[in-house]
Amino acid sequence: MRERAFLVGLDYRSRARSNKGKNSSQSQVARDAANSVATRKAPTAPEFSAEESLAELHTLATSAGADIVGELLQHRDRPDPATLVGSGKLEEIAGAAASVSADLILFDHDLTASQQRNIERIVHMRVIDRTQLILDIFAKYARTREGQLQVELAQLDYMLPRLGGRGIEMSQLGGGIGTRGPGETQLETDRRKIYRRIRHVKEQIENVRRIRAQQRQRRESVPVATVALVGYTNAGKSTLFNVLTKADVLASPRMFATLDPTIRGVELPSRRTVLLSDTVGFIRNLPHTLVTAFRATLEEVQKSSLILHVSDAGNALSAEQDVQVEKVLKELEADKKPRLRVMNKIDLLPSTQRESLKDDAETVHVSAAKNIGIGTLLERIDQMLSEDAVSHVQVRVPQSEGKILALLEAKSRIFSREYVDGAVMLQVAAPESVLRRVRNWVVPRGG
User: Do 187 and 73 belong together in one domain?
Assistant: First the structure.
């Protein structure tokens, strides 16, 4: 049975007053940028409005399996240190939530342990903050053992400072939004046991990192580049991943449908093979505990040769979302990596706007769902990668060397072919890894 959730957002009037002119102009810049993505460069740090943030919370709650039965946006000069929104407003929220038979209240804000206890004492129902909701969605969609371990570590780190004096939520561990993951095993609230569990999970994750490092070391022993897909959640990364790799990774409009890392090979137009890594979607104020816990997974981003930053071209909040992605990349110390912006979902734009789109050195426009612009994207990736460099050479291969001729057919681009005295003269563009295997048949320049 789906739980009924009541949403609460918070908008600071003091911030709105001090940034009123700037934010309104930034908001317009963001809309204009999203509506003319062909000319958009790096974002200029626009911010989500309180209404936009509350709408995102609505989507998050739906992804967690909730039915939204009501919402309220509270305007204040500053947050109340004890209850965030003030005791008077909490009484109003409690009445509104009770009138629609809500099972829990979701706050679009992080709550301290004391604030959460104080709010629950007044509203007499479960209270979940934004971080706990995101952690819950991660627990719901993690499929591999690695993903489950990383989510559990983030949840334990979140829970530890909130053990003392918890009321409603701690008495209802075992079911409902905000209680998945460790809650399903009726996790003891004893700090010593939780610390012991944290140490155990960290050891297991360290083993995962060690195995992943060994796998990466083996990959790096041959000249194969890794390309990482990053982007805001629901930007279409998994759909693009499937198109490029011909894989069948789950592609869903749900937030955080992809949590577990996936790496597949992609053949570029030069016939080079690269590895493409799909990663978890980023989001505004991604909990630091999650960034830390998923570091083993996100190391693929840090070690990649090229980052494909996927944006939703048709989303009015595209500029704001791009800023959040930049923040996470900076936290991962991957913001200096070579980057290619991929504006996805152009099939959803009006035809007149779509026709005006122009690719440039930093941006390619595609529709993964409709297979538009994929060839151009592969060509651009090919141009930006230096690993296993491609060279143009002439080779003279005896017709009896069938394996060598088959290798060149499969792994190089052949521009001309001529049969001379029992041999095949070929003009080819081939990666270094292929040329090493055919070096005995390469014709010296001028020869």
Answer: no
